[in-house]
Write a structure and sequence with these properties.
This protein is α+β, with helices and mostly antiparallel strands. 14% of the residues lie in helices and 29% in strands.
Length: 58
Amino acid sequence: MSQTPTFINIQRVVQHRIRPDTLWDFEQAWHPDPYPEGLPRAYAYWSQDGQEITGVSR
């Protein structure tokens, strides 16, 4: 009898309100070079005013 593989899809969603003059620091932390092992994807979505960021990573 064969077993069906189990896939685990874990995602992390975080939301941040960015303080004035800190966007560059946040972007550097969110997009490290190189990405840590085990982090295949990371996305960031900004609010229209650029003050809130929702990050999704897997």
